[in-house]
Structure formats: structure tokens, C-alpha cells
Amino acid sequence: MRFSKIFIPTTKETLKDATLPSHQFLLRAGFIAQNGSGLYDFLPLGKMVYNRIEKIIREEMNRSGALEVSFSFVTPANFWRESGRFEKYGKELLRFKDRKENDFVLSPTNEESAVNMVKNRITSYKNLPLHIYQINTKFRDEARPRFGLLRGREFVMKDGYSFHKDEECLNLEFEKMHQTYTKIFTRLGLNFRAVEADSGAIGGSGSKEFMVLANNGEDDIVVCDSCEYAANIEAARRKPSKFNGDEPESNMMSKFYTPDIKTIDELADFFKVDKFFTIKAVIKKAIFENKESKIVIFFIRGCDELQETKAINACGCLEFENLSDEEILKSNLVAGFCGPLKLPDGIEFFIDNELKNQKEMIIGANEKDYHIIGFSVSNFKNERFKDLISVKDGDVCPCCNGKLSITKGIEVGHIFKLGTRYSKSLNATFLDENGKSKPFIMGCYGIGVSRLMAVAIESKYDDKGCIWNKEIAPFSICIIISNIKDENQFNFSLNLYKKLGDLGIDVLLDDRNERFGVKMNDYELIGIPYAVIVGKNLVNNEIEFIARDGLIKEKISIDDIVDKIKTVLR
Amino acid sequence: MRFSKIFIPTTKETLKDATLPSHQFLLRAGFIAQNGSGLYDFLPLGKMVYNRIEKIIREEMNRSGALEVSFSFVTPANFWRESGRFEKYGKELLRFKDRKENDFVLSPTNEESAVNMVKNRITSYKNLPLHIYQINTKFRDEARPRFGLLRGREFVMKDGYSFHKDEECLNLEFEKMHQTYTKIFTRLGLNFRAVEADSGAIGGSGSKEFMVLANNGEDDIVVCDSCEYAANIEAARRKPSKFNGDEPESNMMSKFYTPDIKTIDELADFFKVDKFFTIKAVIKKAIFENKESKIVIFFIRGCDELQETKAINACGCLEFENLSDEEILKSNLVAGFCGPLKLPDGIEFFIDNELKNQKEMIIGANEKDYHIIGFSVSNFKNERFKDLISVKDGDVCPCCNGKLSITKGIEVGHIFKLGTRYSKSLNATFLDENGKSKPFIMGCYGIGVSRLMAVAIESKYDDKGCIWNKEIAPFSICIIISNIKDENQFNFSLNLYKKLGDLGIDVLLDDRNERFGVKMNDYELIGIPYAVIVGKNLVNNEIEFIARDGLIKEKISIDDIVDKIKTVLR
């Protein structure tokens, strides 16, 4: 394509409100345009990249045996009422009325629609499994849309839903999708990890997120330096931590006067032991689905931190709210001196798994200015013990003896074993081998299609602009005519453009009547993987070849250029 | 693909509310599913057909030099306020508020978004022309959604918008789009006509509709039997009609007592002349954009009929409303005796072009029980004369001497010279060669993408089901295994399936454990262009080949089948 015939409105201005490089560069290089809060148009360059991404996803999904469908974007509210989500889903669900005052929603996800498509159309185990997917617009009315395509309100998602007669079959599909997603993100040229994820309140028996490693990522992910283990911080596990040093002396369990000792550091100092041998209490106010609230205490080792999502899952609540001093007093708790022994009646508590059967621990005595030493964590019901702590840099991998470290990632995909959450509530059943009616066992599988464009940039860019990989770049190569008034330069470039085009290579020919500097700046901003600069040295049969990643330049003979391009694009 | 692995939930039930064959068959054969009034999901078969249609449209649009973009479906209301359409557009425009109480619309069309994308990004005539298009979801909150995909609320449209520095350039693009659409609909295998269309109140200097000929079409289109002329009935023209017979005697203009003569038939009878020599008055109450109303009279030949859209355009109103006897009386009009001479003060009227300078006409005298004979239609201002009449079967073509006939069509595309309607109201300008600021001259170009699936069926089907042409059929051929328990039949079919697949042919292998009759009924309902039936005669090396169109069957040797298929699909 010729630059003079395409619409690439680049700008030098730094755009306020665009804090991330992907947001900044996609706007400045003319890939996207904002037309409202969290609403973006795709300009020609953006649409080219988008189409490449979509094509790879569609090809691999079809290859996996999943069937492409499409659900209407405007969805009748009755589907969402039946599943219970019309009321429960927050304000992100955009609800509206049509001219006849009927309720509708703009789909933020399509579990309900998928179940409705299959319900009564598949009635026997003989026609299972089935995996249907779509690549379609979604809308989530985010409270604070930001970061451009990374957290917009309107976006495109690939959402797939599988239906099975049993868990075993679901597990096979889950594994197949794991492989399919791996193929997709590999073909997209991204540096990603499939990480264990929190299955959340929906339950379900398994969940994996696909994270692209990027400094500006919103998510913390834990990776092992020696095996394949990786997990979202919310779901990360470790080998139970051990104390490297002398164990403390054995003590009879006894109460000690510890005036004004309120922090763990002070406590360890006071008893001259490592924080490893202390137990701290984290007090939370848990809000449940029925809107009721309850105080819950989480006991963890003094040197650990509570992982909030794990804590939420442990007590089965929706979220935590701030707790006032007054509320703590009212419940007869002694802030700073809480321990798992002799808690006031009716206080719910959980203890971290790693504390099970630990001896010689120091705990609060639930009495002002007193702690208990020589405590053994036993005599608690099994249900009290949960995984509650946040994995840290340097912890030991749960799968090998490797070292774990924490890095930043951006979520691009999520595969999830749903179970019967939606088939049950929407009453979608099939007849099994014995003629018995059963709800479908379901899985769901998402990829954020439009956000992948931003993610690709977040994973590779420099201070001059985008650096696209060749898999999804809008063009593979850009030919820059240094001076279009030089007939030789122009004709040589046009010829090369045609020759490469005949080889099926996507070329952008910068034939604009602009200064060389302007064209070079635009090239760097747009970030096409390679460029050929046709300049003054053409008279010596020499042109320049540039790799965008690193801006590596080399002089090359005009006789070698086609082979060079073929080689780098192979 | 194997039938056992795909999701094609066919049903024998006739579906109530589905009055058109396309609606009935698309639902029954498992191409689409309804999930609300005017809302449809696409099942795998439907999505396959849709994708083929979309691909052809995208390829030809790109080939024409138009650039693919995408506009957000949720559009801020301020765009529509600026253009004036937020208030003016009827209830079909779905308006809603987000969580922050800001107004938005679901795009029913995207002139505003297109202008916004180009505004301030193209500032010089040097970067014109530009044509941007998208293939995207639209929503129109129809009062009475019906006919399945033909008049749904959510649908997919290809909408393109071109920007030019002058009319000449717009005309070139309009002509190019005429050719591009012709290529698209030809590749889609449709029997269509490009017809002259009403440019409507928006004005603009030209407009063509692309109509697929179909008995169940909503539109009347006029076609010539000997030249290329074709037009929507609302825009159709003809050679002025002539009277074949003896002209009436010459009369002095004089008033005649014509008691109780109210209809044109009675009048012609009374004076023993042909209706050709009478003028009838059609009285309308016109409603204007500013909500005011006015009585307007349209005078046309007694043997013609008023074309309402032409009449609306003639007086520049939005629509006509019913007129009560009381309102006629109040305005001092004498119903049944209205004529263009001596009308009460303040009554607006128009006269059909063909009446200009006609002599010896009989008109109402604007006096009860009186008519005037010997009237010559002259002495009226030129602005009074407009094209007002509806072309009839048998009228003479305006371009040649061919005969016009009226047939039914379904609109699938519309190309339109918009002019400056939107660039002016949205203040979108560029600098011309002289550095002068000017509004863009625009064109717009639409194709109803999802409705094409229904249109293809309306243009060809039989009482058993769909008859897809090979260009957009979900599969090119279906191999039906008569009895899957017969190992020879099964293995031969599977082999043929693989062989054809290797040739790049899309094959559906009906490998289901169902009776032959069930499979055959499904084949006929789904309407794949060709089928091979592998049955008992396989032992004699003979199978059956079927063409869906006409259900023509022939026995064929297994040695010839691949060549046969290659030939019919060429």
C-alpha cells in the first residue's frame, strides 16, 4: 500500500491522560482514536493489526474443533434474570429499555446466551461434547475506563463455551484449550505464561490465566526459575517455608505480660525470637451475597502477608469492607492482642495451612497487654485451615526446589471449568446413557482480542514508538523514499515495492512529499518490523536496511535486498 | 466437516410467526436462532454463510481502494446532537444512559462517527479523496421487527463513507462503488438490479439502490424489457404517456353543470371522453420538519396514480397524515370538484410534469356540481410542475422505447451522494488549493450484510428448503452415507470426504446413525448445492449424484465422481 493512499494521521503531541506507552503510541501513530470514555475507533492501521490477530485466533479455534457462532450483542434481560445475574451483576452490566419498555443488557460476557443456544437443541449425551465460540463486541460499563484498549468499555472478546456429559470430558477440553491458547499466543509472537488462577466465588474446579509479561502489567504473577510453574499471585502456592537457624527453646505454654507490644516486630524483639515463630491476626469485615456482614480473623505467620483473594475465598464472602475501631470494640476483640485461643463467642476465624501443627508459637492472648508463648497449633477443626498467604520473591516452588519470583503480567486469556453453575440455574439438561436428565457440565474460555493490540506494544516498545512483531504488524516492511523528486530513487522504490508485493509481502511504500526526517519519525512511531531507506547512495547501488527492534541499520547492495527481506521474514 | 461433530439442530416443525420462506428455513435448518424480538444468534451453519458473504464484501471493498476501519457501536450522543439527529431521529434510534448518566446511542448508521474520525485528521485537499468503511453491528429499534433477518433490530451492515474536495471526485467514487457493488453481488451469485432511487429529503444529487429480485420483496421496482433502465417505484420515470385514439373535439373553456359527478370514471362517462383528458386532484395533509401542517393538492391525469414519495419530495414535507372531511370544509375546498383554477387563497398545489401545456382538459371548478372543460394547462409557474405519478406496468421506458414492468425486489445495497449534509453540521472542513476552508463533499455506501443470507434464500428456494448457490453455501457438497453400519459404504465415503478435502473442497459428511430418510430431509432443508449418496449400489461401483436446485438425480460411477464434482464446482 502507498502511504499517500492510506489514512495514517500521526501526531507528535504527547497526549495527556494516556499514561501507558501502548495507549500513547496507538493514538499518536494513528492506529486508534478515542470517541468517548472507554470507547475507541480503529483507524486503518489498527484494523489491519486487529484483523491479523482475529484471523490467528479463528484459525486455531477452528482447528481445535470449536464451532464459530455469534450471539446477539443486545441480550434480553430475561436470560440474565434466570441465571440470577441481572440483579447481582454490578453497574458494569449496562441495562437499558427498548421502545416498548422491555429490559435488555449489552453483553459483557455470554454464558446465558450460550446455554440458551444449546438448551433444548441438544438433548442427548450422544451429541456431546460441543464447543461453540464467537468473536464479538462486548460492553462493560467500567467505573474508571483507562489505559486505552487495556481497560475500555467497548471491546472485542473471543468467548467460547463447552458442554459435556461429565467432568472427564470437560478436563480433556480444558487441556485442549490450554494447548490451543498456547498455539495462539505463540503465533501472535508474545512472551506469555499460562498461570494458575483463582477460581473465585463461582467455584469451578480449575482455572488458568494466560499472562503476557510486561512491566506495566496490572497483575502480579509468580514464576519459578527452574520449572514451568507459574501462577497469578491470587492463586500462587509455595513449599511451606522453613526456618533457617536455631529453633527457639521449648517452653511450657504460658501467658506473658507484654505491655504496649502491638506490632509483630516489637513482639519478636521482646521475646528475642524470629517473626517466623509469631502468629499475627488480620481482622476483616466480610460482606456476603445476602448483604450481611461478619467479622472474620485470619491467622498467619508473623513474617507472611495475607493474600486478600485467598482470604475472601476462604470465608466465601463477596468482598471486604473497612472495619472501624468501634466495630472491633463492640465485638469484644482486643486489637493488637488477638490470638486463635479463647476468641470471643461467634467470631469466625481461619488459620493458614502452613501453621498446622507448628509448635513454640507466640500468639495474642485476647487480653490487653498479654501474649501466650509455647503455643502448638493443633486441636482446630480441619476446616479452619486454609491457604491464606501471599507468595513472596524468593519463596520455594511448590513443584520443584526452584526459586519463585514475582513479575508483572497482563491477562490476555482465561480458561475456566464452569461446572453446572449456568446449566443448573437456566435448567439446561440432557439425557445421559441411562436416560437420566442431567445438567450440562460446562467450560468457558476467553481471549481479549482487541486488548491484544495494546498488550503487544506493552511487551515491546522503545521511546520512539511501537515495535510490532512480524506476526501482527500492519505491514512487514516499509520502503522509505528519501526524496521523491529524485526519479531514480522513486522508480527503484516503486519497482521494489511491486516485486515484494508479487512475493506476497505486505509493504508500505512511503511515497509522501515530506522531509526525510518526518518519514523516519513516522516509521519509528508506527513500528513496522523492517524498513528499506532508498537515498543518495542509490547511485552507488547501495541502500539502507533497518530492523525496528533496536533500530539496527546496515548498508546493503540493491542486488541483495530481496533475499535479505525474504530471510528476515521467513 | 462431519455432521456428527457439528451442531445443526434441524426441526420439522413449521414455525409460527415465520411467514417468509427465508425466515422459516433459516430457523428450521439450524442456521439462526431467535433470542428476542428482532434479535438473532447465528449457529455454526449460519456463521459459515455469513463469513463467506463478509469475505467477498471485504475483498472487493479493499480492491476498490476503500480502507477498513471500525467505529465503536456505542456512540456518544453529543455526535448526534451536533448533527441534529439526536432529537430528529425517531424511536428507531436506541438512546440510553451509562452509569454516569451520560447519553449514548446504539449506532443505526455512522455518518457522525465517520465525520468525527476524519475531522481535524485530514486538513488539506492533498490528502483527499478518502473512503473509509466498516463491517459492523447496527441496531434499529424497529416498531415491528419481522421477517427474520430481513427486518431485525440488531444486524450487520457494511457502511462506507467517502470524502472529497469536489463533486467531480465524488462522482468518480460513486461510479466506482456502482462497479464494486456490481462485482460483490455478482460474486454472491445473486440476481440483482441497480435501480435509480429516491434521494429523499436529505437531498444529495444521486442515489442508487441494489435490489435482488424476489417474489417476497418489500419494494416495487420498475425494469425495462429492452434496456438497462431500472428504478425503485419511488423514483421511476417513463416517457410521457400519449393518447392512442381520436383527440377530443376542441372546446371553448366553459363551466358545465355536472350534478353528483364525483369520480373520474363518472366524469369521463359524462363527457364521453377518455380519462386521459381529465385531471384529478389528490388532497393531502403535509407534516413538515417544524411540526407544522398544511393542506397540499396534487393534480395528475385522471388515468394516473399519485406516487406518495414523489409527492412528499415535491412539497418538501416529512410525511402525510390523514385529512378529515371537516378539515377540507374548513379550507373552503369542495371535495370531488377541485381544480387548479381559482383555488381558495393559501392552498398550496403542484401539477404533474406530464400535464404541462396539455389542452382540452376537464378539471374541477372548485364549485359544487361544476366542472370546467376545454382547459389548457399553462399560465402556471414552473415550480408548480413536478414528477408526481407512479409508473405502471406497460408504460414506456424513459431511455428507450422498451416496455416497463413492475417486479418485486429486496434492497441489499444503497449508494448515495451525501454532499455536505454532515460535514457542514459537524463543521468538518479542509483547505482547498487556494487555502480556503471548505466542508468535505461526502458519499455514503451501505450493504445489509446479515440480511443477504435471507435474501439469497428468498431469491431461490423450493417447498423442501433452502437452495444455496455455491458462492455462499456453508458447504459445497454433502456426502450422505446411506447406512453407516455398512463398512464399505462408510469407508468409501470417508475416503471420498478426505480426497475432496485435500482438493480444498468444503464437504459435509453425513455420518450420523440416522435413517436415510432423515438425512435426505435434512439435506434438502439445509440446501447444500450438491450431494453424493453412497448406498446399496456401491457394490456395483455406482453412487448417486444430486443437484439441489431442481433435485436432479443421476447415477454415476465411483470412478467419475471426483471429476464430476470438480466440474460442477468450477
Question: Would you write up a description of this structure?
Answer:
Two copies of one chain form a homodimer. With 570 residues, the first copy, chain A, is α+β, with helices and mostly antiparallel strands. The first copy, chain A, has three domains: 46-73 and 106-237 and 405-457, BirA Bifunctional Protein, domain 2; 254-386, YbaK/aminoacyl-tRNA synthetase-associated domain (YbaK protein); 475-569, Rossmann fold. Chain A has 14 helices and 31 strands. The longest helix of chain A is centred in the N-terminal third of the chain and has 21 residues, at 167-187. The model of chain A has no long low-confidence stretch (mean pLDDT 94). Chains A and B meet through β1, β2, α2, β3 and β4 of A and β1, β2, α2, β3 and β4 of B.
Brief overview:
With 570 residues, chain A is of the alpha+beta class. Chain A has 3 domains: 46-73 and 106-237 and 405-457, BirA Bifunctional Protein, domain 2; 254-386, Alpha-Beta Complex (YbaK protein), CATH 3.90.960; 475-569, Anticodon-binding domain (Rossmann fold). In chain A, the strands form 8 sheets. In chain A, strands 3, 7, 8, 9, 10, 11, 12, 21 and 24 form a 9-stranded mixed β-sheet that branches. A 5-stranded mixed β-sheet of chain A has the order 16-14-15-17-20. In chain A, strands 28-27-29-30-31 form a 5-stranded mixed β-sheet, sandwiched between helices.
